[in-house]
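Kindly review both lines to help learners:
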Amino acid sequence: MHDTRYAISADLRLDLPQARELMTRLLAAEGFGILTEIDVAATLKRKLDVDTEPYVILGACNPRFAHQALQAEEALGILLPCNVALKQVAPGLTRVWLTRVEGIFGLVENPAMGEVARTVDGIMQKVAEGLRAEAG
């Protein structure tokens, strides 16, 4: 695994499109939808004529938790949505990183954020475990 203070990781024995589909399904089961999708590889090719491995960033959001967070700290919008990055590191192998919400929201010095951050972080951990169980 390649976990950091700000990301939970999982290596999946799937191509990126399959990993994206699984990720979307597991997030939806937890009340998260995908608001944005950035195809990093396509953007780098178009803007810099650089070829890279497939890499996609998904912006995932749960409206209830986003609302709670914004009520506690209105500037928190700059840290939303919860991003998920997927990179195909080899044929049939995709590395996924999910936002470690407690690590990111720890930047905000507002005790009211603690419960929301812990709850969402727990959900991201659960999704990572689901990824590993289904495709690890």
In short: The longest helix spans residues 113-135. Strands lie at 7-12, 33-39, 55-61, 82-90, 93-99. The radius of gyration is 15 Å. The domain at 7-135 is CATH 3.30.310.70 (TATA-Binding Protein).
